[in-house]
Amino acid sequence: MKIILLISKNREITDSITKYKPQNIDLVVIKNEQYLRYYLEEYLPDFVIIDVDLENNEVLDEYLNKNPNANIIFNNKNLKKYNSTNPKYINLNIQSENNIFEIINIISKIEKEAIPKNNYKVINQQIISIYSLKGGTGKTTIAFNIAYYLKKLLNTKILLIDLNFSNTFSDLTLFLNTNQIPNLNYYIENYKDGESALQKSLLINNPTDFDILLPPLSIDSFNKFNLTLLNSLIDLVKTYYNFIIIDLPNNSSDLINEVINLSNLLFIISLPDKNNALKLARYKFKDEHLKIQNKINIINNPYNNLPIKKSEFEKISNHLISFEIPYYKDVNKRFFNFFNIQTAILDMEYEATNLLNKHILK
To answer: Cis ω on the peptide bond leading into residue 182 (within 30° of 0)?
Structure first.
């Protein structure tokens, strides 16, 4: 759903516009331009309607650089002084709330015609991998939230693959409070059976949820799960699922590098401290071509640690941070129910949907 941010000090406009509920559009109204940067970062609007005199338009230029699909609509009198040639700056005559309503209605109609069912365009066979350079970053929680809210937003076929092989239960299994059977081991032993082997390996709740492929109970199975088996599995699941979310272990191997190479998008999760920034700075992919992979760096604060500033993290790591997840206070914590069982997986609806809208569903 498209988001419109309206900035106006005209009380006639703001009072009436807050009562207006357009279809296919989320409308955010502010009266003080001093909060513009905050609202831009918070809501990532597709359209910004400016009905105030701004001291400068640097914040808008920065926003358009980061969000090239956005559009800025100015009132005639407000745009003229900037003399901007940016085609994303649209000059319109705004004199009353009726003009605002007309603009929003036009955007709403465009949205209704352009956006398919569920308000998103579904792109098939997207592989999204979640990776971290150390344990305890919240990687598995983020992977689960991505799978859950992709399913909720798109109502399409989603598979979450847990590749955290170990001799104990994986974090995801413990969080879900479920048995680790069925799991990937059946497919490893019977991969020649193709779809039948896959179906018997899946943890399937019901058609309204996403499917899960858990790791085997023994690390010995990891040695059997070679590159050939990995590629056969990926080729198979791509024929049945629109999105494949892969929770990777925090180590480096030929198998992990191959998953990353096959991925359309890679989320790298770090804690907001100097040690994690240094790890990220020193980390090099084994394969040179992986450096051009579409990587999204995220810093997550699951333990209420005193975080370093984003700018300091970026300076130490020499990586741009695309998304930050703050600490969830106990009063704000909700946990998922899955298989009608209370899980230990934190529901991060606000952050997860923002992350999806910014990097996957844009």
So the answer is: yes
